[in-house]
Amino acid sequence: MSEWDSAEMMNVAAARELYDGDVCLVGVGPPNLAANLARHTHAPNCRLVYESGAIDAKPRRLPLSIGDDDLAATATAVVSVPEMFNFWVGAGRIDVGFLGAAQLDRFGNINTTVIGDHAHPKVRLPGAGGAPEIAAAARRVIVIVKQSPRTFVETVDFVSSVGYGPTGQEREAPGAGPTLVITDHGVLEPDPVTHELTMTRLHPGVTVEQAVAATGWTLKVADSIEEVPAPTEHELTVLRKLRDREPIDA
Amino acid sequence: MPSPVPLTDAVAEHVHDGDTVALEGFTHLIPFAAAHEIARQGRRHLTLVRMTPDLVYDQLIGLGVADKLVFSYGGNPGVGSLHRLRDAVENAWPHPLAVHEHSHAGLANAYSAGAARLPFAVLRGYRGTDLEQQRDIISRVTCPFTGEELAAVKAVNPDVTVIHAQLADRDGNVMLWGITGVQREAVLAADRAIVTVEEVVDEFPERTGAVILPSWVLAAVCVVPNGAWPSYAAGYSVRDNDFYQRWDAIARDRESFLAWAAENDLKESADV
């Protein structure tokens, strides 16, 4: 078995959460790697949708942006951005949305907008993009984010995309809300009643104490915590080819 | 008449100080050359509108062209921050920048409402987000049929929209294809539209999925080959990903940014 790092483990764990046949809305960064990894391993019929308008894109190598020509050239259909958000995302035709976060709270609320006050921010982040409606309408939402006390905060400075609301009970959106949070430490899932994110799985070699230390609130840990299986040789090979932008034989 | 005119003339005639200007392009066909011409002519106090501000708005904001930004995602995709945008918002350099901030769905619908000449659009979005605090652009309405409460987003109607496209014909009609983003909506929402194109042809090719903009909805068509660089025009050029990476270092501090601007004959606006 090759050596692997925690970022690779995070991407592999995320890819495994996609099922064959899923319609997946793919964003830049780790979601892009994870979705393409899934399509080239256990989920060859995973349908990749990019918010730029490409539906059923079959990229021949990892796209660098959500608007690469290869996505349009290999897609079943290319639609306008208003159509993408109204007819496909907003109307609930997306099974899985992957989101990132600059800050995340225990009820899955996401900040990608500002650190500090919105009018006079300490740090201006890119903003919401497609995430608020993906968070609202996708049947499953998977958040991929590295776990640290700076990211996993008691209260987010700005709600860019709603999870389960300030106390975990305010969600009114049509989709299910954040169903999984996948980090470089392991996997968190919302409690079925309180919706508080609970650490249910740890990556190989990660301890509960490390996960607790990487969380800015008092982390809830499941009674029986599972270990995520290590990446297989095949998963690592495909992941690295994707990352190096080599063409992949599907 | 929208027969080809020089870009300098089109910008001089149709883009004025204080205008609301949308330079659209969702990753593809971003009108960089036209943006640089706007900066060279020294326009000031613009309200810039765009879903994905990208490098071109980082440049215009750094040059002091804009007073306000209407947007939904202001990053360098896959690379990181837009440092000139951040410097303007965080430190008011070269001067303060007001922001109106949407989600992609919200701004796409705001353009669509603008194109339809409706006052607002309706969507099932924004709920539970702090973006709703901007009540002058995002509010709520109740469906008169079902009673459902929905988000309302104020229409966006730019004074002028600028886009890049692959082709114009001799009559000044325009054709674009590939990822067509929100360009049609942004053109139809505007009072005036300028289109730069790769080339002029006698007859358009047959092409599935192309967007055609008839000449009578356009104010001016200009022939500017490679006018989307470092973004791309499908069928003509590829995205210069290296420049997107390099921009991060150029824009990171004010000195290297100003040096880049000087090298490219782009000066700061007079009263920054």
UniProtKB/TrEMBL annotation, chain A:
Signal peptide: none annotated. Its EC number is 2.8.3.12. InterPro entries: CoA_trans_fam_I, NagB/RpiA_transferase-like. Transmembrane segments: none annotated. One of its GO terms (molecular function) is glutaconate CoA-transferase activity. It is an enzyme of class 2 (transferase). Keywords: Transferase. Belongs to the 3-oxoacid CoA-transferase subunit B family. PANTHER family: ACETATE COA-TRANSFERASE YDIF (PTHR43293), CHOLESTEROL RING-CLEAVING HYDROLASE IPDB SUBUNIT (PTHR43293:SF3). This is Glutaconate CoA-transferase subunit B. It comes from Kribbella italica.
Automatic annotation (TrEMBL), chain B:
It is an enzyme of class 2 (transferase). Keywords: Transferase. The keyword Ribosomal protein does not apply. It holds the Pfam family CoA_trans. It comes from the Bacteria. One of its GO terms (molecular function) is glutaconate CoA-transferase activity. Transmembrane segments: none annotated. The keyword Translocase does not apply. InterPro entries: CoA_trans_fam_I (IPR004165), NagB/RpiA_transferase-like (IPR037171). Its EC number is 2.8.3.12. Belongs to the 3-oxoacid CoA-transferase subunit B family. This is Glutaconate CoA-transferase subunit A. The lineage of its organism: Bacteria, Bacillati, Actinomycetota, Actinomycetes, Propionibacteriales.
